[in-house]
From TrEMBL:
Protein name, as recorded: Glycoside hydrolase family 38 C-terminal domain-containing protein
Keyword NADP in annotation: no
GO molecular function: hydrolase activity
UniProt record similarity statement: Belongs to the glycosyl hydrolase 38 family.
Organism: Lactococcus muris
């Protein structure tokens, strides 16, 4: 019996790459004419438009008259679109961003007649272990992908891929790439092509994807299929689509495998792209935090108080982020002109998102029933009570201040800085300005307690006693309830007060050459790695009751470029400032490094020296955690067995990375840093890649990746902007515990990384935010501090709180990060009775609606996600 070959005619339409989105759009405008005409005239039977909707979203903005034509082809099953908005990265993009990407794509595709219900990611640089449960949560039970599948797991092309919660999808692995079928068009080597795609196929049905990057319609497709069919005796080719293919694959007996797929055994995986264009990764991380943990919950809080929910504005920001989270865009492996456009989208999303927070906090603050001058409202957008030390700025006409709560009790606080500013009309000569129109901006550190999804008010009053700014202390240490950090002889030493344990030289830095490209780190062919110590640094300490900070400044001497590095010349000075902060009540040793990078082709890493040996690391994934080996077993023989790149144990991370034994658990939380590696003797060092500085999109013959250049193999494409010759900041924190608890780590991360929005009632300073300058009406119905739901779920991770587009009301999502089942006491609590049901990731009800003021979240399988929809 002949094997059936399903010829899938498609294009892989990279949103942007070495070309910009604008440049490729011109081709798209004409390309879609060819596609629609070919389908309408029956020159081809089917066409797959790369599984992403962003290109059609942009196309219809310019050509809205084509919507009916496109819809007719989609409904006829000829043109296959969706389900994605863009072809996302899966490893350094948050789970909630991935869900938003898919739901945006599905909503747009539904308007055009429906989406291809297949998780189609033909080029993402590795596959997250959480994708099966994301897909199943959105009603998808099939997937197509190319990169990352380890040969040790399976050599089959078709199998079931299962997450730890039991979610399972039928997977087709296009091991030879989405472009392998171009051989059908251009080569007469019929048997060779069939042998290639048959290798590893389980049954009688094979897939042959015919397409490529921005590829035109192959009008001779049928002619070439007929040619192959005449030459072949054991295979029969036919025009097909992935729905037909999967309907046949479902009849086969297939194996089931689990885990993440980040192996280079079959394809390049770019296991160090996580540190390319760090500046973009930092911006993406900041915007994800703001959108998920501030904007979306705050919009719901405001809606409950009578302020309209602007979902279109929220979707606009998520579309900007989704474009920047496409695999090439997220990776940073683009031309400079493309990366500049990506950065502009980040800036647009940043301005929109912080303006939403500014507008809503002001509207709520000014619309309260009781409002007075210098009243400060501090907001908590998380579904549990928060107690933490925060930094706020207040403006007053008086220099000395006191802070009181609603009970009239004076609060203790630290004044970190005070600046005198002018509020009148500015004049060329400062002496001509009105001396009675000056005011003071005070930066304060104060411990506050704010109820779940609510706000509290504080009052700034003039003090009869001097409120002094914290002065510089002549000491080389800082401390709080948990730690004492000391500087001695060029090293940082940490004392854990709870464990009564000292740790020497906990933090240092290193700099090595990077003769790689925007895809991959690769050491210089003539490399030298330099230890960057803190010896000789100038030190300042500021020690308040709530906030203590040690500031170290100095200069590191580095090679200017690869030539100087090879010669051992270090004439490029690198100024640095390292701020280390300890806040009252915090277990986080917060580190903030600032440098002005002027060196080329190098990689800088922060080195955390660990007190114990270990063989594994643990880090968070989009909806879970993963345990990884500190060293790949094929590190020595990867070239002998034909792997595509060196399997260095450089790994991606989202928010944190942990190492632990039975007595110690060390975690590093990070803002925008997405790459780590365990190094040193017995892997007793954790290296965070701060950034890589490289100058080409692709380079050939790398030490870690021999052979042709990634990206464009035929031309060097310089990317001087990717050298990041600019001021760079890096933010991370070290936290010590006795045991490893991933749910607790997730909450601890939010305590570290998420600020509490605030707003002060005052008219002295019209520039506290951009929108402060504008006049604004208060609400007609005056409000008071609301009582909202509270999440009591110590075993679970809070993932999101957002509006349900289908039913209205709120969707609260949590998941079990553990690889073990959870049967603890986990609840959503409310002061009043809620109507609720469990829903899927789309927001569609899975259970009957019930009523209660206490929602039992129930038992959780390992890694399971649950979403509760409720209306009060």
């Amino acid at each position: 019996m002949k094997k059936k070959v399903h010829v899938i005619h498609h294009t892989h339409w990279d949103l942007e790459w070495y070309f910009t989105h604008n440049e490729s759009f011109v081709q798209l405008a004409y390309h879609l004419d060819e596609v629609m005409s070919a389908l309408e005239n029956n020159e081809i039977s089917y066409y797959l438009l790369d599984g992403q909707m962003s290109i059609l979203d942009d196309y219809l903005q310019s050509f809205p008259e084509q919507k009916t034509r496109l819809k007719k082809l989609v409904q006829a099953g000829k043109l296959w679109i969706g389900p994605w908005y863009t072809q996302t990265d899966e490893l350094i993009i948050s789970g909630e961003s991935i869900v938003r990407n898919l739901t945006l794509g599905m909503e747009l595709a539904e308007e055009l007649g429906g989406y291809m219900n297949i998780g189609y990611l033909p080029d993402s640089f590795g596959q997250s272990k959480d994708m099966p449960k994301i897909y199943q949560g959105l009603g998808i039970d099939r997937t197509v992908f190319w990169r990352g599948l380890p040969q040790e797991k399976t050599r089959d092309r078709e199998f079931y891929w299962q997450a730890e919660d039991g979610s399972k999808v039928l997977a087709a692995n296009i091991k030879d790439g989405y472009f392998v079928g171009v051989g059908l068009i251009h080569s007469d080597q019929t048997q060779e092509l069939m042998t290639q795609i048959d290798d590893g196929a389980v049954g009688q049905h094979l897939v042959l994807p015919v397409g490529g990057d921005q590829r035109y319609v192959d009008f001779n497709l049928r002619e070439r299929i007929n040619f192959y069919n005449q030459k072949l005796s054991d295979y029969e080719l036919k025009e097909s689509n992935y729905e037909e293919l999967f309907s046949e694959l479902e009849k086969e007996e297939l194996t089931t495998i689990e885990g993440e797929f980040i192996s280079s055994s079959v394809s390049k995986i770019h296991r160090s792209i996580y540190s390319s264009r760090y500046d973009h990764k930092y911006l993406n991380d900041k915007l994800e935090r703001r959108m998920i943990y501030q904007v979306e919950p705050l919009v719901l809080m405001a809606e409950k108080l009578g302020i309209a929910n602007k979902q279109g504005l929220i979707d606009r920001i998520w579309k900007l982020l989704a474009k920047n989270q496409a695999h090439d865009s997220a990776g940073g492996c683009n031309s400079d002109k493309t990366n500049r456009i990506i950065r502009e989208r980040f800036i647009e999303a940043d301005q929109l998102s912080y303006s939403i927070v500014d507008y809503l906090t002001r509207k709520i603050s000014e619309s309260q029933k009781k409002v007075c001058d210098h009243q400060v409202s501090i907001f908590n957008t998380l579904p549990w009570e928060v107690t933490k030390t925060v930094k706020i700025n207040v403006s007053t006409e008086f220099e000395d201040i006191q802070l009181k709560n609603t009970a009239g009790e004076a609060l203790s606080f630290d004044v970190l800085a005070r600046n005198k500013e002018y509020s009148g009309e500015i004049r060329r000569e400062e002496a001509a300005q009105d001396p009675y129109k000056y005011y003071y901006i005070h930066e304060l550190a104060v411990e506050v307690t704010v109820p779940a999804l609510s706000f509290v008010n504080y009052f700034v009053e003039e003090s009869q006693q001097s409120s002094m700014v914290i002065s510089e202390d002549k000491q080389d240490y800082i401390e709080n309830d948990y730690y004492k950090l000391s500087y001695k002889k060029g090293q940082l030493h940490l004392f854990d007060k709870k464990m009564q344990q000292s740790y020497d030289n906990i933090l240092s830095f290193e700099d090595g050459g990077d003769e790689g490209d925007t895809y991959d780190y690769s050491p210089a062919h003539a490399d030298r790695v330099f230890d960057l110590t803190l010896t000789g640094s100038k030190r300042k300490a500021f020690c308040g009751e709530h906030y203590q900070e040690l500031i170290l400044t100095g200069t590191w001497d580095l090679p200017k470029d690869l030539k100087e590095r090879a010669e051992g010349i270090c004439q490029q000075t690198q100024d640095y400032e390292l701020k280390i902060t300890l806040k009252k009540g915090s277990k986080h040793l917060e580190c903030h490094l600032t440098i002005d990078n002027q060196a080329l082709d190098h990689r800088m890493r922060a080195i955390i020296n660990l007190p114990f040996a270990h063989q594994y690391s643990y880090t968070d994934t989009p909806f879970g955690t993963v345990k990884r080996e500190a060293e790949d077993p094929h590190l020595k023989d990867w070239q002998d067995i034909g792997w595509r790149e060196e399997p260095t144990a450089i790994y991606p991370m989202l928010k944190w990375v942990n190492v632990h034994d039975d007595k110690n658990s060390w975690t590093v939380f990070a803002k925008g840093i997405k790459e780590y590696q365990l190094i040193g003797e017995n892997h007793r060092q954790l290296a965070l890649t701060l950034f890589r500085s490289v100058g080409f999109l692709g380079r050939p013959d790398l030490l870690r990746r021999p052979g042709v250049a990634s990206g464009n193999a035929f031309k060097y494409i310089p990317t001087p902007d990717s050298q990041l010759l600019e001021k760079l900041t890096f933010k991370f924190a070290i936290s010590l515990e006795q045991d490893y608890n991933p749910a607790r780590l997730a909450q601890s991360y939010l305590d570290y990384a998420l600020s509490l929005p605030f707003y002060q009632i005052q008219s002295l300073n019209l520039f506290t935010t951009t929108l402060k300058y504008f006049v604004s009406n208060t609400l007609k119905e005056k409000i008071c501090s609301p009582q909202n739901i509270s999440l009591k779920a110590p075993d679970l991770v809070f993932s999101s709180l957002r509006k349900n587009k289908l039913y209205g009301g709120w969707d609260l999502r949590v998941y079990n990060p553990s690889t073990q089942a959870v049967q603890g006491e986990n609840f959503i609590l409310s002061e009043q009775e809620l109507r609720y049901e469990f829903v899927d990731l789309k927001g569609i009800a899975l259970t009957e609606r019930q009523k209660n003021s206490k929602i039992n979240l129930g038992d959780f399988r390992a890694g399971q996600i649950k979403t509760v929809h409720f209306i009060d």
